[in-house]
Amino acid sequence: MAILITGGCGYIGSHTAIEMTKAGYEIVILDNFYNSKPEALRRLRELAGREIPFYKCDIRDAEGLRRIFSENSIEAVVHFAGLKAVGESVSKPLEYYENNVGGTVNLCQVMAEADCKRMVFSSSATVYGMNNPSPLREEMPTGAVTNPYGRTKYIIEEILGDVCKADPEWTVINLRYFNPIGAHESGRIGEDPNGIPNNLMPYISQVAIGKLEKLSVFGNDYDTHDGTGVRDYIHVVDLALGHVRALDYAMKHKGAEAINLGTGTGYSVLDIIKAFEDANSVPVPYQIVGRRPGDIAVCYSDPSKAERLLGWKAERTIRDMCRDSWRWQSNNPNGFDS
Ligand code: NAD
Ligand code: WQD
């Protein structure tokens, strides 16, 4: 029996593939390489210490998926594949709905045909939207999202809930990630964004290495301890371990469950700059600019449900996250093209 990981060559999927292999799961990876590279697959196989089966396949391709299910005995799917750039989703909403929502519906249909009815899904804290106060808890209302990307996550959670209601044989765990950063301790795999990064940590890393001149801090007039935005940053390896526990749980339970994966602690943009400089002894020049549209002041999790249900909690510190991000960036200045 094996676990299918969709999007397993991407940032979070590659780290999860390694931790799942270490935990003793047999895995099969699918990816269309839209936002990842064959070199990531090569390195994750090297770190896992085995020849993990791989299919270059798109989740919208039903025939391609059927082939994977007929050639392997898949008992659950850990579903990462999707597009994730918030700004791009505003200009290309149909691509996001087609890929993320359409692709997930297609995947579920092929899973049901193959009688595989267990899924761990990559949802996001973004489903909590603008109106809930932190710490964010799973039972709070979702849906007041501000962009098409976030809406795809909200819609998929709703669809998966309907699937579980219609057929009690289904199990779905919607993992709501907060802000994943950091990289594998080996420095061999990490986040490799195309072009200029949108997210804070890859931007900081590229400033530190001199590829970008300085960080723009988006607003210092929020109602936070230093005026800059506060987020719940979580080490990608802790996140990966959360998936292993969620999968263990999905093997023994039925129905739909939403679970936060965060640390429960918020750090501001200036806190992160300082932590990065301290951990790595490199300067990160920055300037304060206006707020980024759509940003909220504060977003952090109540992580207690994950601890209660899964027996999981994040263990790596902000210093670990900064150190590992920098190790990845400095060892691989051009990402997987280095
Ligand atoms: P990523 O882009 O690095 O990985 C996604 C992978 O899916 C890529 O390798 C890409 O090539 C593949 N993919 C995309 N569309 C596909 C398709 N139609 N068929 C097959 N493969 C496809 O992103 P990531 O940061 O690893 O995120 C993984 C998941 O977690 C995504 O669903 C993302 O929305 C979600 N998520 C990410 C974050 C974050 O901050 N990184 C936060 C919350 C949720
Ligand atoms: C973090 C903080 C910025 C860049 C996004 C998605 C969310 C989820 C995770 C997928 C904020 C500030 C950033 C910069 C800055 N993804 N910042 N200068 O916006 O919390 O979440 O990624 O589901 O859906 O929206 O993450 O890393 O972009 O920003 O000052 O150049 O850093 O304003 O306070 P965000 P981020």
SSE arrangement:
Blueprint: E1 2-6, H1 11-22, E2 27-31, H2 38-48, E3 54-56, H3 62-71, E4 74-79, H4 86-91, H5 93-113, E5 118-124, H6 148-166, E6 171-177, E7 179-181, H7 200-208, E8 215-218, E9 230-231, E10 233-235, H8 236-250, E11 255-261, E12 267-268, H9 269-280, E13 286-289, E14 298-299, H10 304-310, H11 318-331
Parallel strand pairs: 1-2, 1-4, 2-3, 4-5, 5-6, 6-11, 7-10, 8-13, 9-14
Antiparallel strand pairs: 9-12
The protein binds nicotinamide-adenine-dinucleotide and UDP-4-deoxy-4-formamido-beta-L-arabinopyranose (WQD).
Structure report:
This protein is an alpha/beta fold and 338 residues long. The chain is built from eleven helices and 14 strands. The strands form four sheets. Strands 3-2-1-4-5-6-11 form a seven-stranded parallel beta sheet, sandwiched between helices. Strand 5 (118-124), helix 6 (148-166) and strand 6 form a beta-alpha-beta unit. Helix 1 (11-22) packs across helix 8, helix 3 (62-71) runs parallel beside helix 5 and helix 5 (93-113) packs parallel to helix 6 (148-166). The protein is globular. The protein starts with a strand and ends in a 7-residue tail after the last helix. The model has no long low-confidence stretch (mean pLDDT 97). The structure holds nicotinamide-adenine-dinucleotide and UDP-4-deoxy-4-formamido-beta-L-arabinopyranose. Residues 7, 9-13, 31-36, 58-60, 80-84, 99, 103, 122, 124, 177, 180 line the site of nicotinamide-adenine-dinucleotide. Residues 84, 86, 124, 126, 150, 179, 198-200, 203, 215-218, 229, 231, 269, 292, 295 line the site of UDP-4-deoxy-4-formamido-beta-L-arabinopyranose.
